[in-house]
Design goal:
86 residues, alpha+beta, three-stranded antiparallel beta sheet, 1 helix, flat
């Protein structure tokens, strides 16, 4: 009986973790869509700026960091770039 409780507990933890991660990704996508339109996701004012852009060459993801000068919102996004043509 204790094994059943342990399995149920672990299953609840696993489902909760997956649901939380999916919610996090949806919020991150919503913020990126707002940034693509030029608005800060936190304060809603126009004028968010790209402050840092990094990549590992022509292949692989780019890491973009955006900052709002009005409310000091800062967030980084990993953007997948198309693969290199060889």
């Amino acid at each position: 009986m204790n094994t059943l409780y342990l399995i149920l507990f672990l299953l609840i933890i696993l489902i909760g973790s997956v649901a939380t991660y999916i919610y996090y990704l949806k919020e991150k996508n919503h913020e990126l869509e707002s940034i693509k339109r030029g608005f800060c996701p936190k304060c809603g004012q126009k004028g968010i700026m790209l402050t840092d852009q990094r990549s590992a060459g022509c292949c692989g993801p780019k890491i973009l960091t955006f900052t709002c000068p009005h409310c000091e919102y800062t967030n980084s996004f990993s953007i997948e770039t198309p693969s290199c043509s060889s």
